[in-house]
Design goal:
By secondary structure, this protein is α/β, with parallel strands linked by helices. The chain has 2 domains: 361 residues, Purple Acid Phosphatase, chain A, domain 2 (4-Layer Sandwich), CATH 3.60.21; 228 residues, 5'-nucleotidase,  domain 2, CATH 3.90.780.10. Helices cover 24% and strands 29% of the residues. The protein is built from 17 helices and 39 strands. The strands form 10 sheets. Strands 9, 10, 12, 13, 14, 15, 16 and 17 form an 8-stranded mixed β-sheet that branches. Strands 6-5-4-1-18-19 form a 6-stranded mixed β-sheet. The chain has a 5-stranded mixed β-sheet with strand order 29-24-33-27-34. It is elongated and about 95 Å long. 50% of the residues are buried. Bound molecules: manganese (II) ion and magnesium ion (MG). The site of magnesium ion (MG) has 6 residues, from loops. The site of magnesium ion has 6 residues, from loops.
């Protein structure tokens, strides 16, 4: 415990008397232990995704919102205030930021090597952890070499290298559970032995998400059925209380092979508390709906205490149990669930840190941090063409094309072996950084040549995850009609109309790759800037074709996109959430990094699959960043010429239609 004291501690104590104090006071554990009663505080980290340092490696800048080094400050506080505590991790440890990619793609994990997230966890001191779905992303050998470095046990009950007749006969990849012997101090200061059973689960969907690593090597079981088999065995083995490490979200109340199984898992008799995760949300908290089984205010599932500590170290989850010993058997008599954030967002959207990094965690991983910085700053691939978005709203564009290509590459793999295999796969992507309210410098601009990991953040601004939807040809057309609301209507034969509708954000200008089409600006937009149906009979999308054949209303397509769009963001036809057929665990950004690393040199040449329909003797003007002048001669598919200065530092260009 001495490692948790020192100069950093007093600094943090100072902080917690100001901003942090109210947060900690929000959830006092009000019950007081008497003789024969003991408090046990169970702390959870989840979905750390290699976030040890408070650093955004894509942005190459320090941030206050992430990092186990920060979460560890809350852990130190709790250890100082609670006589009985345990610290558990809920998985998704070794993948999910450039430090993880650096270890996997560059430095490697040989037997005996130490993974930085495991090193950091060893310093903080964990009692046990489970395995998240992302642990399988780099293959089984990488996973086993990484976890071998821990000085705490990993448990995982529903993944087996060989399945028997039932879960208890399986040869599991990790031990299914542990029973830890701990001493607890009761209300009168007497010590008692307590056997704490800890069992872990991961989503069975790993077999689909990481098929290339797992098929033929492991098999999976339903989370709830596995729990029902093992929990009685843990009781027989003497577990006084049982904690489930559920790397699985808070979802449906029932179902087979659920990805998010924490609700029915909580109903399994014998489980006393559930650590949840995978959703990257906070529980208790307002993002979950109240149901007969879920109390998002109290933090219970089927009346049992549950917690989800955000992601990337953003929060520490805390479950307080008041245990009572009756004739040698312990039972939970009351409980509270809470989370402690490491930062808070102020009204002006600025961020205030609520804790300081624990220096010993940073110290233990400082070489890994330095090597990761060098990695994100150096070339990992090459691009044959410059990747910029200066003309992304007037022509098919390489910076959007590369996102589409990587999404399609990924979804093609994920559709293999599913009922959707063989359907045409399209890919939708929009220019995120394209001026507008962001100003005249707010454009993607990666020159031809070397591509570094930190450039990928420039190509894909948001931490979205990949989705696939299955929609009709009619919906594909309406999706593009919705996008075409980007443009003002143009009277044929006129000059100088402003092309871009300033009320329409560029991130809603989805370009769909895999089909060819023209946008006829002489027609009014079918949809308004928020997706409202304004002109039901209008048709701006002309000559929509797939493989040279007209797209008919009843054709079927799979469209690769992101979670924002697929779940209704921007109110696009065919994308209201009901058409989703695949929810990827991977971010679009990670998929782009993987694509670049695997391809070496990328060829993001735009194929001009969309153009404006020709309007003779007609020109329009549009604003873009002044640096666009450097690239205007590269434009092949459109006739664009400089037209002087625009407003507020933008440059004006003329487009002959
Ligand atoms: Mn995760
Ligand atoms: Mg294209």
């Amino acid at each position: 415990m001495s490692r948790l004291k020192g100069p950093a501690m007093s600094r943090r104590t100072f902080l917690s008397t100001t901003a942090g104090a109210s947060l900690i006071a929000l959830h006092p554990f009000s019950a007081h232990a008497s003789a024969g009663q003991a408090h046990l505080r169970i702390m959870e980290t989840t979905d750390l995704h290699v976030h040890v340092w408070p650093y955004d490696y894509y942005g190459d800048r320090a941030v206050d919102t992430v990092g186990l080094a920060r979460t560890a400050a809350h852990i130190a506080d709790i250890r100082a205030e609670a006589s009985n505590s345990m610290l558990l991790d809920n998985g998704d440890l070794i993948q999910g930021n450039p430090m993880g990619d650096y270890i996997a793609y560059e430095r490697g994990m040989k037997p005996g090597d130490m993974h930085p997230i495991i090193e950091a966890m060893n310093v903080v001191g964990f009692d046990a952890a489970t395995i998240g779905n992302h642990e399988f992303n780099y293959g089984l050998e990488f996973l086993m070499n990484s976890t071998a470095g821990s000085n705490f046990p990993f448990v995982l009950a529903n993944v087996a290298t060989a399945q028997g007749a039932g879960p208890r006969d399986d040869t599991t990849l990790f031990q299914p559970y542990v029973i830890l012997d701990r001493m607890v101090v009761d209300g009168s200061g007497n010590e008692h032995a307590l056997k704490v059973g800890i069992i872990g689960f991961t989503p069975p969907q790993i077999m689909n998400w990481d098929r290339k690593h797992l098929e033929g090597n492991v098999e999976v079981r339903d989370i709830v059925a596995t729990a029902e088999a093992f929990v009685p065995q843990m009781k027989e083995a003497g577990a006084d209380i049982i904690i489930a490490l559920s790397h699985s979200g808070i979802g449906p109340e029932e179902g087979e092979m659920l990805e998010n199984a924490s609700v029915p898992l909580a109903a399994v008799e014998g489980i006393d508390a559930i650590m949840t995760g995978h959703h990257h949300l906070v529980f208790p908290g307002p993002r979950y709906e109240t149901t007969s089984a879920v109390d998002p205010e109290k933090g219970t599932l089927h009346g049992k205490p549950a917690v989800m500590g955000g992601f990337w170290g953003s929060h520490l989850g805390v479950i307080d149990l008041l245990l009572e010993n009756e004739g040698g058997a312990w039972r939970v008599v009351s409980h509270e669930s809470a989370t402690r954030p490491i930062s808070k967002r102020n009204e002006d959207r600025s961020i205030t840190a609520l804790v300081e990094s624990q220096p010993e965690v940073l110290e233990a991983t400082k070489d890994d941090h330095a090597e990761t910085l060098a990695y994100v700053r150096r070339a990992v691939g090459k691009t044959a063409a410059p990747l910029h978005s200066y003309f992304a709203l007037v022509a098919d564009d390489p910076s959007v094309q590369i996102v589409s290509i990587a999404q399609k590459w990924y979804i093609e793999e994920m559709m293999k072996g599913t009922e959707h295999e063989g359907l045409p796969i399209l890919s939708a992507a929009a220019p995120f950084k394209a001026g507008g309210r962001g100003g005249p410098e707010y454009y993607t601009d990666v020159p031809a040549g070397d591509v570094a990991i930190k450039n990928v953040a420039d190509l894909y601004l948001y931490p979205n995850t990949v989705r696939a939807v299955r929609i009709s040809g009619a919906e594909v057309k309406d999706w593009l009609e919705r996008s075409a609301g980007m443009f003002n209507q143009v009277e044929p034969g006129t000059d100088g109309t402003a092309l871009l509708n300033p009320a329409f954000p560029s991130y809603n200008f989805d370009v769909m790759d895999g089909v060819t089409y023209e946008i006829d600006l002489s027609q009014p937009s079918k949809y308004g800037p928020k997706g409202e149906l304004e002109n039901p009979d209008a048709n701006r999308i002309k000559n929509l074709a797939y493989n040279g054949q007209p797209v008919t209303d009843d054709m079927e397509f799979v469209v690769a996109t992101n979670n924002y769009r697929a779940s209704g963001g921007g109110d696009f036809p065919g994308a209201d959430g009901s058409t989703v057929i695949f929810e990827a665990p991977d971010t679009n950004r990670d998929v782009i990094v993987r694509y670049i690393v695997e391809q070496g040199t990328i060829q993001p040449s735009a194929d001009a699959n969309w153009t404006f329909a020709p309007l003779p003797d007609t020109s329009v003007v549009f604003e873009t960043g002044p640096k666009a002048a450097d690239y205007v001669d590269d434009l092949k598919s459109v006739d664009v010429t400089p037209a002087g200065d625009g407003a507020d530092g933008f440059a004006l260009f003329r487009l002959n239609l």
